[in-house]
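Data availability excerpt. The first of two example chains:
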Amino acid sequence: MLAQQRQTAILELIRQRGGVRVSHLVSRFGVSDMTIRRDLEVLAERGLVDKVHGGATLAGPGSAEEPGFAAKSIRQQAEKRAIAERAARLVEPGMAIALSAGTTTAALATLLADVRGLTVVTNSIPVADALYQNPRADQTVVLTGGIRTPSDALTGPVAEAAIGALNVDLLFLGVHGMSPRTGFTTPNLLEAGVNRCLINASRRLVVLADHTKWETIGIATIAPLEDADVLITDGGLPAEARAAIGEQVGELIVVEVE
């Protein structure tokens, strides 16, 4: 297969899946790791894909374009893990917490196995799966039900009704984007509605957002920046963004990634 043919095939695969790993492409096309990375570099230079750690995703999503959970899961993995580890320190035994859909909240769910007497409300299938893989008699998981979105979130009137009858101590909210003008946003209108219900049901709002979310804007606003009691991000966030966010959120926590 010629390089141009292989690059066309790689691009089509990324369009179908939203994102791919280098290791998968090496196995699929029977070429070296370096060859695949050169192919991705060519596609990135043409503005067709975004190179991420370990793979690539489609470039330049619009405000209503929603990547799937698998595509998002390969982006900023180290940053999301560091943010999740810091967020886990806010969870205490006996709490009732909510976790929205998202890859960072899914990473947080894997760190909660040792918290005793925990009740978790979520509209995220991956979050629920992560908690069910570590079953304990004192752990309660409330999965809302509803209409499934590309990000594996359960949305719609069923989810909103379930959340509306509950009260939790903390909400850990994953977001698609954030900016001073639009606040915290998502590309999915139904998901925005469920996230607003989660905010209304919680005493404190903790937003988990890596630095790439800054000035990314989805079609639907979930909440203004000032609604966040805490925002946890990583050291890649520019100084001007930290200043802007720090003026509006209750507390800005920046974690450094090794």
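And the second chain:
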Amino acid sequence: MKRVYVNEKWCLGCHLCEYNCAFAQTGEPDMARALKDKTIHPNIRVEDGDDVHFAVNCRHCDEALCVKSCITGALSKTADGVVTIDQDKCVHCFTCVLTCPYGCILPTEDGAVTKCELCLKTTKGKPACVAGCPNNAIVFEER
């Protein structure tokens, strides 16, 4: 299965992946209009260290603890291995938030949770964070 991988040696810490992720979630055609004066909530986060920057995103684990811990079945794996969320089934218990070892499932303002779904519902191809990385530090490939 193809996954998003980050090469921290190439990451500039520009946070453009975060903006491209947030923009892809809006469904709007213009990034400036979609994100201007708004707090963004990307499904990928850049962590900044002293000399290193790296992006944290869902690993779509083979044995996903978040899926196993979901009491309603809101989290599931597709046939190709992508961990997805059915917002209608989510009861806001946040068990998945607590069990994700990478901290990649986040609560939203409306109480549900969100996570990277590889832009399956928006871009239908290369995830927005990968497409928007100016230094090719984020790749979408099978390893």
